[in-house]
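Supplementary Methods, section 5.1.

A reviewer requested that the exact input to the structure prediction be made available. We therefore reproduce it here, unchanged from the version used in the analyses.
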Amino acid sequence: MQSGSPGSLTEAAPDEAGIGKTAITLVIVAVILLFDITTKLWVVENFRLHESVQVIGDFFRFTYTHNRGAAFGINVGENSRIFFLVLAILALGIVGFIFRATPATDRLRLCALSLVAGGAIGNILDRIRYEQGVVDFLDFGLGSSRFPVFNVADSAISVGAALLLLSFYLEGRDEPEAETGD
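The structure derived from this sequence is encoded token-by-token as follows.
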């Protein structure tokens, strides 16, 4: 099907497109934020800093910590909190730019962008609220071999980024190859 033709998978009527895009995005962002904020608040109110509680033996536990750096313990030194706050705000701008260019019918990309945005906003709120940085508490591993402690927002960003890459890959695969002129 050609883009813009009746029944096209890549374009929708302007009214339908605007409402659909916004509704999908706001619902996903709100769900991520609600879950992220609620779980972080629960951890802060119920755990002591650095306290660890086994959930599934040693494999999965809640470990309350703060992270001034980025997801999964990435740190750039003393000013990590501010550096990653600015970086997250810039990333939200890029997400907004891609969102505007995304057709309402590209549900995969809209979902991916919404997950990234919801996660970024959740971590931005922590960076503003806590001088110690983002609240992390999801702790997976065995013994001393552990994945860096993370949170719901980090998960949303990671899944959203993977889905975004997949959507770009699928878009590139679906585009017809340019004619060579032979």
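The CA atoms of residues 115 and 160 lie 5 Å apart. These observations are discussed further in the main text.
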